[in-house]
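Fill in residues.
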């Protein structure tokens, strides 16, 4: 072998992961480009209408609500509309950028969770996340923006693990400014606050403060201060279906609920969710779990998000986006329960396929059975691990 060949293979060996990152990125971007001309029903009925209204208006448009997304997203679209003519591409370009941010954040979180001992773990996490079918469909086909708020949550968790509380809560607040679905991870932060006692409850005030700050430009152009909070209140009252193409507990219920029955069941579902989360918190307090075991910490985050999706009413198929990313990270970092990650992501894919392409991979009832089985297993695993932690602590105290 010549010297040139030796140098080439030495370079390849030393930089194989960087080359891998580049190849995965190019591959993922090429797939996304294939979906840029796809027009979903959501885009035709809502997103394109909002884009046209913003595109053909001046700054006075910032004084009124366009669509039902929060003010910062409207501001973002307004900025892009000053430089881009094609609304379809603009929406998708924004989301694809955050696909990259999400994948990088997932890799960093995985690297932190594995104790910074392996470079292969973050590479695999980045690759699987960026090339996830549902992540690709969400941004480059559907033109949805779930990668925005989820990427902020993933980075928030990364900084939380590094005990950088202020950056963590600022990022969590940014997730809130873009999507109300940030509430799925909020119980975990409450668990973390109660069980670790590493920061004051005052830090939770960062969330509304940051939201107000990011809404200030619109307020300066004439928006009402009350609009900041009214938007999410209105969102929570949209729709009269107990489940919306999500394989959760209510997929077994009939869709033909009267208005009165719907609101009764909706309130019951919210109370049930709070009760289930509350019972788990009481149990973790009783067992004196302190999240020193990072695997239990991540599993708790997975469980709280999963619980919200399973028990909360009016869940869309897209609302499991955060869960799908968390179970991927868990499976890659700890090389276990891969089937849970597969079930969760395949369930989301079935929902996407039904909505985007009017194709049912599997009947929703069957998807729900597998989905609830995965949730039951995650619950069992968390309870089992919590019990193990207590036994370990008792054994240690006895020896001393």
């Amino acid at each position: 072998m010549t010297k040139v060949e030796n140098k080439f293979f030495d370079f390849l060996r030393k930089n194989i992961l960087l080359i891998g990152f580049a190849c995965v990125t190019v591959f993922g971007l090429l797939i996304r480009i294939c979906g840029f001309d796809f027009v979903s029903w959501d885009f035709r009925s809502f997103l394109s209408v909002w884009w046209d209204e913003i595109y053909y208006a001046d700054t006075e448009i910032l004084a009124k609500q366009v669509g039902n997304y929060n003010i910062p997203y409207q501001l973002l679209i307004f900025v892009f509309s000053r430089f881009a003519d094609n609304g379809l591409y603009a929406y998708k370009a924004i989301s694809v950028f955050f696909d990259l941010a999400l994948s990088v954040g997932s890799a960093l979180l995985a690297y932190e969770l594995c104790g910074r001992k392996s470079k292969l773990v973050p590479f695999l996490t980045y690759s699987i996340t960026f090339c996830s079918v549902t992540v690709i469909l969400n941004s480059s086909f559907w033109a949805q923006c779930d990668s925005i708020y989820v990427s902020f949550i993933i980075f928030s968790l990364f900084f939380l693990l590094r005990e950088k509380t202020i950056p963590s809560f600022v990022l969590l607040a940014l997730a809130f400014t873009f999507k109300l679905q940030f509430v799925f991870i909020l119980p975990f932060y409450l668990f973390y606050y109660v069980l670790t006692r590493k920061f004051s409850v005052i830090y939770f005030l960062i969330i509304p403060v940051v939201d107000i700050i990011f809404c200030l430009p619109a307020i300066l152009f004439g928006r009402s201060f009350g609009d900041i909070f009214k938007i999410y209140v209105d969102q929570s009252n949209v729709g009269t279906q107990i489940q919306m193409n999500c394989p959760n507990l209510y997929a077994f219920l009939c869709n033909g609920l009267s208005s009165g029955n719907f609101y009764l069941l909706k309130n019951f579902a919210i109370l049930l969710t709070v009760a289930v989360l509350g019972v788990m918190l009481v149990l973790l307090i009783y067992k004196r779990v302190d999240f020193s075991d990072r695997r239990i910490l991540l599993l708790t985050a997975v469980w709280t998000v999963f619980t919200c999706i399973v028990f909360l009413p009016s869940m869309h198929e897209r609302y499991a986006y955060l869960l799908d990313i968390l179970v991927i990270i868990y499976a890659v970092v700890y090389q276990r329960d891969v089937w849970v990650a597969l079930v969760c992501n395949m369930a989301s894919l079935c929902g996407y396929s039904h909505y985007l392409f009017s194709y049912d991979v599997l009947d929703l009832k069957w998807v729900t059975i597998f989905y609830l089985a995965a949730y039951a297993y995650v619950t069992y695993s968390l309870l089992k691990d919590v019990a193990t932690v207590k036994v370990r602590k008792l054994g240690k105290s006895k020896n001393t």
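Residues 391-400 have pLDDT under 50 and may be disordered.
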